[in-house]
Amino acid sequence: MELEQAKQQFIQTWGNFGTQWGINRSMAQVHALLIVSDCPLCTEEIMVKLSISRGNANMNIRELANWNLIYKESIPGDRKEYFRAEKDMWEVAKRIVKERKRRELEPLQQHLAELKKVEQSYESISFVATIENIERLVTRLDSLSSTLMKADEHVFFGKILNLFK
User: Fold this and answer.
1) pLDDT per position as a tens digit, 11-43
2) I need a surface site. Which of 77, 78, 82, 148 has the fewest CB within 10 A?
């Protein structure tokens, strides 16, 4: 397989997985393109290589930058903005976990805390117990994500492997 063909297959695969991870296909494809690019790319190059509109490219570039998965770079003598991806996949995983925690776990924790403030009655005991059970799970997931974000790759996987022994 030629390198360009392999890169295209990776971009398509990463895009398909992106939809399963809860992000849109174009965002995942922009990310994949920047991961496999040896040099930073400008918006126009991203648009051409992925056959997407300027608006689509700009929106996804901005969102990837918000997730701290890509960076702006300048090239001396060129006024265009260029972008490159974080290529350390452990760092990428930690940043994704951090962002998902902020967007998903923290609001869920706040919402669950509010739901427990239901009127006290015989019927509400079961409901509150269910909410507290969900809350314990979310707290454990939050703790796991915090551990992941702080951990060194080798230490983290070493601890995971110890769990299976």
Assistant:
1) 999 999 988 887 899 999 999 999 999 999 999
2) 77
Residue 19 one-letter amino acid:
T
109, 74 in Cβ contact below 8 A? no
Cβ atoms of residues 69 and 23 within 8 Å: no
Phi and psi at residue 24, to the nearest 5°: -75, 155
Taking the C-alpha atoms of residue 160 and residue 148, their distance in angstroms, rounded to an integer, is 11
Q: How far apart are CA 82 and CA 57, in angstroms?
A: 12
pTM (predicted TM-score):
0.79
H/E element, 117: none
Q: Which of 80, 23, 15 is nearest to 49 (CA)?
A: 15
Alpha helices in the chain (DSSP H): 3-20, 25-36, 43-50, 54-66, 89-100, 106-115, 124-150, 153-163
Structure tokens at 93: 């995983």
Q: Which of 144, 36, 37, 151 is nearest to 90 (CA)?
A: 151
**CA dist., res. 69 & res. 88, Å (int):** 10
Work out the angle between the directed axes of helices 25-36 and 3-20 (0-180°, nearest 10): 140
